[in-house]
Structure formats: C-alpha cells, structure tokens
Amino acid sequence: MTDLPIQAPPHQAIYRRWRAQTFAQVVGQEAVVETLRNAVRTDRVAHAILFVGPRGTGKTSLARILAKAINCTNLQDGDPCDACPSCVSIREGRAMDLLEIDAASNRGIDAIRDLRERINYAPTDLKRKVYILDEAHQITRDAWNALLKSLEEPPPFVVFMFASTHPQEFPPAILSRLQRFDVRRLTTDEIEGKLRRILTADERTATPEAIHLIARLAAGGMRDAESMLDQLLSSSTDGLDEARVRDLLGLADTETVAGFVDALVATDARAGMRLLDALDERGRDLRGFLDQVIETLRAGIIGAAPPAGLADAGPMAHSVVDLAAAARRLAAIDPSRAGVGGLRLQLELALFPDPALAPRTAAAAQPAAQVMPAARAQTAAPVTTRPAPAERPATPAAEPEAPVAKSRPTSTPPQSPQEPVAMTSGPAATVPPSAVPPAATARPAPPAAPDKPQTPAPPAAAATSPELAVLRERWPEIVARISAHPPTKPLIVVCRPISVENGIVTLGFPEDKAFLRQVAERRKSVLEDNISAVLGRPVGVRCVATNIDVLPDLPSDEEAAWILAQAQRIFGDDAADAAEVG
Ligand SMILES: [Zn+2]
C-alpha cells in the first residue's frame, strides 16, 4: 500500500490528507477498483456511472480517481499518475472541467440547471468534462427531467458520475441508464490497517485496543474512523488508550455497561434507571450505549470474551438463557424513534420482565393507555432511519411482536404509584417547564393539573408558541450544556430554535452549512438528551436548513469563523465531502 499523504498542510483533516489519490491507494473495494481500471485500460468507461454505498466508504474518492484516470496523460496501467497537469489540477480542486455538485443543497439544484445550459461547451483544461453529483438521490424530479436528456445523448466529451447512499430513490428511467458500482463497508482489519499507517506517519501512538475500538465504532466507514482519530489526536498530545477513546467519544465505561446488563438480567428497573440517569448527567450518547450493551450481551451469549473496550467480564456471570432474554428485549428497541417514546423510555421498559410472560389484565392496560398519548402520536411522525452499522452483531431473533418497541398500551408493565418509574410515561406536553429545576434529567415532571392546559400550539401559531418562548429563554443554558461536549459544540452554537410542536423541537441550521445540519442529525441524541433535560420533559429534535439571517442572536463574525474552523477540523471542510458524514 502506498497511501502516503500528499503534500498537504498538517492541520488539514486526516481524511482529506489521507484520501486515496490513485486506485492503488484505495483500501478495500478490490472488485470495483479492478473493473474501473480495466475500463480505463481499454478506454471503455461508461458516460454515466453510479457509485452506491454507505456514507464515508469512499464513493466520491473513487469518482475523483476515475475522473483523473480518464484525463491522465501518463496512465500507469489504468491508474492515474497523480503527477501530470490534469491529475494535479483535479487533486488540487482547480480543474475547471471537473464539477462537483452536492445535490442535497439549494445551490446543487441551481448547478444542475446551469449544467444543462453549459453541457455542450467543449472542455477547457481537461480532455473530458466530468460532473460528480453527490447525494444524488436528493436530486428533484424537475432536475432529473432536465438531466435525462443529457444522460440520453451526452456530448462525447462528458462523463457523469453519481454517488448515493439511497439508489432506490432514483427514478427507474435514470437508474437504467447508469453503470452501477457497489462500494462496500470496510472491514475492521482494513480500517485498523489504515489507522496504524496514519499514526506511524504522524508519529503518534495508540494502543492496539484503542485502534480496534475506533475501527469497530466506525462500523465500516473509513471516514468516520479517520474523523474520530482526528478528534482524538487533536485533543491531546499523549498516546491514545482505550479509556481515552471511550471518554472523548462519549462512550459509557465498562462498569456502567456491565451494571446495566446486570440490571437487565435481574429486571432491576431502579438500578438500571440510576445508571441511565448517570449517563444523562455525563452527556453520554444513549445510542452508543445501546450498541455497547447489545455487543456485550451477544459476546456473553456466544461465550466469547467481551469485545475489547466495550465491557469487562461482568456479564459472563449470567446464564445464556438470561442474557438471551435481556437481548431479546433490547433487540426490539427502535433507536431512531424520537420524543416521548424515544430511546430513554425504551431502555427503561427493557428493564422490566417481558410483558408476554407477565400476567396482564385489562385494568393494568387501561391507565397506560391514558398516560401515553404523546408516545402514540410520535409513532406516526416521520423518523429518520439510522444507518445500520455493518458490524453491529446479529441480534438474537426478536419475537415478531416484541412489545417493547411498539409502545402498545398493554406493553407497559404494571406499575405501583410509589415507584419513580410511573413518572416516565407522563404526558410531556402538559408539563410547565418552569416547574422543573434546570439540572433535571430527561425524566418529565408529574402531569400538571388539568386546569392548566399547555398543549402544543397549533402549527400556524408555532412561531410564537409559549413553548418556543420558553425554549428561547432557556437556550443559553442548553448551549452551555451541549458546549461542554466538544464534538457537539460547533453544532449547537450555529443553530437556532425555530419551533416546538408536539414534542418536537425544530432547529434551524444555516443553509450554506448543510453538512453541519447533517452532522447534527447524526448526533441528535445528544441534542435531544440535553434539551429534554433543560426543558424537564423528553423532546425529539428535527434539524432543518433555514435562512438563519432572519433568526435572532446571530454569532459575531469572529464566533462564526471559530465555529466553522472547529467543525471543519472535526468533520472535514466542505459540504460536498462532509455531506456524507451526516
Ligand atoms: Zn496523470
């Protein structure tokens, strides 16, 4: 492997410095690379190509290398030389005839309109004009219609390259005109190998356990692994060990994971909820925690040692049957569900015995139905889907009607009024935020008296709803809390609350920083946990692009520059690249 960094300033993000510049430098993807090299060798590159695969696996890198290859004046057996004027101008982003369009942005749509007008002009500095359309599933119907003609009869000097995580959203008429390449997730070994080369070149050290943990957490996305490494390395000049990785990435410690497994097996809800409270207080990410717990249970079930860095040997003390029963309850959890029926509540419910095995009566089910209206409303709301990590263990077969995730009224276990558990499913919308101390955790306060209706404002009034006023008033506190967590600081500082409706807080992100919105989408649970904590009731978070100039309290130019610098350091520095990070 010859993937040495290309003459780049050392402060540049690792994934940019280490981006593959030739086919030979691409890690993994052997089949795709071989097919592309062959096409280049025999001069049979299709005029419209589609790269499909999970985010951060190198789709746009492959497109750029292919763009170099079809323009290179000194091909090396189908691989670009990366030294001729064409290669260099593409590598440095100076090539006029290579146009990268982020289809997810407004500017992208304009660019596609533009493209149609200019497509017939001959190239100026390259042999062939190349259009790389990233996030291409977001191309609008009108834009596709505009493109269709160009795809059917492209000028001989034009090549289209699309990259997408969701090819199923392409119109069939388009899909049938594209030559498709499937880019796969990378293996843990492949990611570890590259991380080790980066560490060696940067003269930094990390324990094998730390490298392994980063590679596992990246779940097949090299860019995620590189971004994590970047963040970890820039936070300290010391060597990296597992504990530091866990700490900086917001992972729970092994004792907490093992303790939660104990609580699950013993169906000790109180102990489990104390652990969840402690995680909330430390701003830990519950989604990551769920993954950790599932990995640990799985390791216990198959009799393996717990995965490095994810838990200690605690769970090994339990029987396989008990571990499987606990795993089955967790397997039913839908981590993408926001708001009242969100991950926190689902984790809490998993701490109770399987309701299918518990006696149930109509009387027990009735109160639950009354206290959970918001949860059912949530179920109907659109939720974003979390990409499944490649190496997430195959969870034990869940029962088809596993009740924990369904929020069915009957799935709420019988509760005694003295238990704190009874509070967790209170109707969120009726809680006056002022009744809750600022440091309260996500657990909602008891329902308010019926004569104080604080139901969500109707959509039309959302912009000035009392809930929004409260949120704006508490905003500085929310910003302070989330800023304490370095990876989310740039996100919370740049966004603004737009509305609060039916338990969903809508946050506006500047239109020209689409990638920040997408990163925020990915870190949503941290935003949700902290906003819920300050408001004293569980809320979901929705991130939208907006014209932020119309919103109050813009950061100063200096602050804005700082935010962008931080975000670029952590997540990479342009929307086209970072769009996939989200
Ligand atoms: Zn070249």
Question: Could you describe the 3D structure shown?
Answer:
With 582 residues, the chain is α/β, with parallel strands linked by helices. It has 4 domains: 14-182, P-loop containing nucleotide triphosphate hydrolases (Rossmann fold); 188-248, Helicase, Ruva Protein, domain 3 (Orthogonal Bundle), CATH 1.10.8.60; 254-414, no CATH class; 459-581, 2-Layer Sandwich (GMP Synthetase, Chain A, domain 3), CATH 3.30.300. It is 43% helix and 8% strand. The protein has 24 helices and 8 strands. It has helices at residues 14-17, 30-41, 59-69, 85-91, 106-118, 141-152, 172-175, 188-201, 208-218, 222-234, 242-248, 254-265, 269-281, 286-301, 320-331, 343-350, 362-371, 373-380, 466-483, 489-494, 514-522, 524-535, 557-571, 575-578, and strands spanning 48-52, 98-102, 129-134, 158-164, 179-182, 496-501, 504-510, 540-546. A 5-stranded parallel beta sheet has the order 2-3-4-1-5, with helices on both faces. Helix 5 links the parallel strand 2 and strand 3 (129-134). The two termini are 29 Å apart. Residues 308-315, 359-463 and 572-582 have low confidence and may be disordered.
